[in-house]
Structures
1.
Amino acid sequence: MLTMVAERYPPIVHPSPLEQRLIAGEQGALRDLFDAYSPMVLGLCRKLVGAEAEDVAQQVFLDAWKSRGRFDPERGSLGAWLARIARFKAIDHLRASSRRPSVPSADVGESLSVGPDVDAVVDQLVLTRALEELPLARREVVELGFYEGLTHPEIADRLGLPLGTVKSHMRRGLEALQRDLEGSRGD
Amino acid sequence: MAIEHDLPEFGEVAAILRRGPSDVVYETPPDSMWAAIEAGLADGGGGAEVVDLTARRRARLRIATALAGVAAVLVVGVPLALSFQGSSPETVELAALPGYEGFGGKAELDGRDLAVDLTGVEPKPGEFYEVWLLDIEGGELRDLVALGTIDASGNYKISQSVDLSRYNTVDVSVEPDDGNPAHSGVSVVRGELPLA
């Protein structure tokens, strides 16, 4: 007997071992989180706050450990969650800097208007990182579509894939990116 | 552009992507940074906020934890009457999931022996395929067990402790070669064995 099954189920999201250990508060999980993500977090903080990046980055990891129970793998990756914390830490830092009497007025104006730039920098990093973590086929389709500006038929031709497969990869890829983008923002 | 016309709900993601890759430069932290974090923990910075986890997350964690070792997984199932033992072989077609059109195959269950043959699969470097049995009820995943990796075909002996009246969906996932034993969340084909 041959039974055709046409039902579709949504993708399955499982916490990674590091995510599980972090949520459980296991000893050593913070160090592993630091080892895996500190280059990204420190680079992001350097871009946002310059010379004081290390101070802000270490606050990001302390805050991540303190609020680890709030991390939800279904709402985005660990990278997106850390980027979210860094986003708010950087904004707090820039606002506090702008209130310091020693800061020249020109810098105050720049700091006060830097909010949208913080968001733009974080958003772009979150999507770049999320794209790198996609399965290869989806990543190729999204990169060709948005970095090289190809249309769906052009991507299908370039990769030798059916047009429907390209569209599915694009949709699934963008869904994953959107999930991380939302996970990197406020509640 | 055609992509945005087809997928208007991703307009913001598309706009950000179109700006190109991030120019943030990853930076190796100095040792002093970890030392400062440890000092912060010692000062009381490590107290966790208590947040109730949802039942759904607990369920997912339970599933993921079970996946940590196949041996552990295989004793989780409750032994029940074995619906398929002694019956004639059942064959189901494995249908492609969205994004993997062109993939397919069939699975034949003979007692506790499962034979899986895949068609159209093209493993890429750094990836492999893995066969699972899923326990799905009402469209919700309740649990799953790993049977093993597969190239184009494979034969698997299902433990007596796995209740085949529950674990009746054959699933093949594509897995990154990263040492993580959990299901990647990316399935390529599935087929449902007929319930007794």
2.
Amino acid sequence: MNWITNYVRPRINSIFSRREAPENLWTKCDECGTMLFHRELKDNLNVCTNCGHHMHITPRDRFNALFDGGIFTEIAVPEPLADPLKFRDQKKYPDRMKAAQKKTGEKEAMLVAAGEMGRTPIVAVGQDFSFMGGSMGMYVGNAIIAAAEEAVKLKRPLILFSAAGGARMQEGILSLMQMPRTTVAVQMLKEAGLPYIVVLTHPTTGGVTASYAMLGDVQISEPNALICFAGPRVIEQTIREKLPDGFQRAEYLLDHGMLDRVTPRTELREELITILRMLMGLPPQVVGDLPAPSETAEIAPPKVEKSGKPAADAGAKAK
Amino acid sequence: MTQYLEFEKPLAEIEGKAEELRALARTNEEMDVADEAAALDAKAAQLLKDLYKDLTPWRKCQVARHPERPHCKDYIEALFTEYTPLAGDRNFADDLAVMGGLARFNDQPVMVIGHEKGADTKSRIAHNFGMARPEGYRKAVRLMEMAGRFGLPVITLVDTTGAYPGKGAEERGQSEAIARSTEMSLKIGVPVVSVIIGEGGSGGAVAFATANRVAMLEHAVYSVISPEGCASILWKDAEKMREAAEALRLTAQNLLELAVIDRIIAEPMGGAHRDAKSTIDSVGAAITAMLDELKGKDGAALIKDRRQKFLDIGSKGLAA
């Protein structure tokens, strides 16, 4: 029996899955079933070009599109103890970690970065649902604390993109302790007078919502994201009745006053820039190239040529 | 009459026999059962000792959930004077799963807040089995904020399976309410001490246990998820709760080693429910000791102490 499930089936699966998506050229939308050309989908931030369904996006891909020119500096996260509880379920926790690292190419479920977005300096932190369900363990907690400390140090706002099934059970009580720990991080930002914006993405549930993901100054969600404390299945089992359509989805939460906005991923960057520049007391974003640096202007003020064109314009035209 | 737990069945038999003998003797004066009954008592006491000497994590969960275990209400009645309950979250309702209000502890005015599970069917329903809704956490936020402004120490008693997973609770922002409760706990410049008296169930518990000092009764449990829940997710089989309870390290002894809690309060032989009074007294003594440790610290130092305590958690793992 065992060799059939453990050996033969994976072999068969691997043969078939390889055939289904050759070279990852096409991705099928989970919602409408349209076959989407991989590059086109990526350019649209993994939002289906047919139905607008938001598919999973890794923090790294998100940051590449979020930061100006895709340039950002990764912030180091203090390494937590590995497997502090010596946790064993059907697999050992270190083995689950290794598998997740291999699958994602990332070290853990959180990425912290500093850079500029629409020439607005920010610190951003993104949770990776593909890494063990984005689950909140000590590393995730450390990442949020590191991000908050960096933001305070650089006097920048913090944007957090959440995506998690909840706490990381393999770290037991220590994962639960990330709720107060990350709350301390949020308080550091608030006391430094810096904006903390939370972007909730599908799904954000459990202990994550009951701490840092619900404490933002502005709470934005991507469309149709599942956001809840207790999952719909648990609730249905408890109250023994069918839940209404769209229950615990972003739009439902917006209706119930739990969110400020529901914004499509493709419009998110512009919206974040607009909000942050207002909260930081900065002038509106300059669209297009910047005017020539003011230093040169001081040395040699823009001379108006006889044609009536300021010299500084030349830079903008060069595009 | 004590309710026996599943693993206490052999004990129930012996104690039952002793009781039967005594009942017989009462109706039949010629019988002399004193020796026999005493022997059975001794046997029962020894068995109780053996059973409780090394409780498995799963058995501890059962003891922590024992229906006759002293609850928040019992502690408040016995340890506090002038208890004046304060109700409501000023937004929606009063949640009876959370009780709290002004009281005096050793004559000192304090704010006491805790989960109440109820003691019989009627009160259990009224208290929603100790599973709070957002209103419960928002009431706690209100009381903590007030305590902060009036310089009253906050004492919390934690005993909940978890926050209530209901439709209305979700619609009214269960997660936000819990987050705000943790946030407020970290913000107030007064001593905050917490005792986990029974079940410390996940987010619903941590919302009240973000304290300068956290104590835990010997057989209480404190966990990120119930063993049943963990088993059904990781083992895909809710019946594996024994293994899950073991893996989660949810006992007071493990949590002390991990520096998640600061002290363990010993329970009487056979668990808190076998001698509620002595348990309550021990909890009172622990609260006094914890408040004493925090004496002389000003508001800023208390906030800093509390935040640092949680930031430091995780630097100690369990020995292999």
